[in-house]
Amino acid sequence: MNEQDAVSDKDAVNEQDATEGFRSPLEQSVAERVREAREELVALTAELVACDTTAREGPMPARDEEKLQRVLAARLEALGAAPELWEPEPTGDGDRFLPGGLDFVGRPQLVATLPGAGGGRSLLLNGHIDAVDVEPRERWTSDPFVCVERDGALYGRGVNDMKGGIACLVVALETLRRLDVRLAGDVVFCTVTDEESSGAGGRRAVEHGVRADAGICAEPTDFAAWVSCRGTVTPTITIEGRAGHAEMRQPHWREGGAVNAIERLVPLLQAIQRLREDWRTRPDQQHPLLSPGDIVPTVVKGGSWIVTYPASCELTCDAMYLPGHVDAGGTGKAIEGEIVACLEAAASADPWLREHPLKWSWSCDVVPAEMPADHPLVTTALACAGAVGRRGAAAGLDSWHDAATFTRGGTPTFSFGPDGIESAHAVDEHVTVEAMLDYTTAIALTALRWCGIGG
């Protein structure tokens, strides 16, 4: 690229309107170079899929997390970044937002800053390296840890959610380097663990100081911009019963008779259903991009023997709440309080439960977040998707993603990635190569337009 081209291209990419199409010969060259890197993109994706980084439950040894992070670190170092891999301290008990006893031994986080020439806005590019398990493995058409291409799509565990997207981020930066482009603003590349289970990696990254002016997370959004998401609180309610022979007639419980703890679930389940119906129509539960909050009974544990009245029963619920219900302390305590009040009221109408109170416990508070749909990085990314023929719009995710953590940590971040989420977590997970190429181009163009070109 000659000096005259650099000046005209800098003027073009610093514009912030949302017009579609390529704005300069440089942007056209970016698209062409990405196409030339097709096999390289596929190969990097395959290298990442070959690393078993399936999510852990409880204290389990590390898998291939460090191996994968070192693959990425080497690519970024070759671009002039100084990668940092670090193993955060284990999570402690009593943390409202993270499960206790989670360690990061052999499971480092990665941050690598590609320094800009100065004067431009910084950009965070984020992805999570963990993937869900592969069961039932026997139903896969091919080995889930061997990335294969069939009919224009790549298949393998994590290829859609979201190792394919991570590979695109890397190749986008490599494409700019091949064109001798130095951005004005810094690019902060950060890949984390544990998004699928707790969000601990992203939280530790924010605590570590990972920041930028705004950011993109490479979730499979089909080129939409997920600018908002719901959060979750997860109550487990223990109901006390009284054991007794299930095949023998029992006297009234006040006379020492058995009490079936499972049957005592009924008023609680009815109360949950009423609460769900209330939330579906209540004004404070409406959101332009998200479904209303919800509470879904998901796990029931009760009983010990087939001919014994169950002496206790546990009910666990998945309760989703909107960003507007986050309290001043950054928690979902207000929603917790509403759930407790609803179920305690139902329990108070039952004589047994009134005298044998419910016992409550809560797992992590996964806090939602949102950013403006017209944020300049959002409009820039959507315009860049439009430039390659992919029309997206601002949208919401009814589940949760790491973008919420970075947003709450001071970096407005949204998810934006190739293909849809339909095959994520599924047997024969896949992503189309064409979408990956378009996404790689869109990310490179977004970096040009957001960060600007340095002198």
Rg, Cα atoms, Å: 25 Å
Straight-line distance between termini:
12 Å
Number of domains: 2
How would you state the average pLDDT, rounded?
A: 94
The proportion of residues in beta strands is 15-25%
| Highest-level CATH class of the largest domain | Alpha Beta
Number of H/I helices: 12
Report the biggest beta sheet as strand number plus sense, adding barrel if it closes.
6 strands, mixed
The name of the CATH superfamily of the largest domain reads: Zn peptidases
Order of helices and strands: HHHHEEEEEHEHEEEEHEEHHEHEHEEH
Largest sheet strand order: 1-2-6-3-7-15
Structural class: alpha/beta
Describe the protein in words.
The chain has 455 residues and is of the alpha/beta class. The chain contains twelve helices and 16 strands. It has helices at 3-13, 25-36, 38-49, 65-78, 159-178, 200-208, 265-281, 333-348, 351-355, 376-387, 403-408, 433-451; strands at 84-86, 109-114, 123-128, 148-150, 153-155, 187-192, 214-217, 225-229, 231-233, 235-240, 294-302, 312-321, 359-362, 394-397, 413-415, 430-432. The chain has a six-stranded mixed beta sheet, with helices on both faces. Strands 9, 10, 11, 12 and 13 form a five-stranded antiparallel beta sheet that branches. Strand 4 (148-150) and strand 5 (153-155) form a beta hairpin. Helix 3 packs across helix 5 (159-178). The protein is elongated, with a radius of gyration of 25 Å.
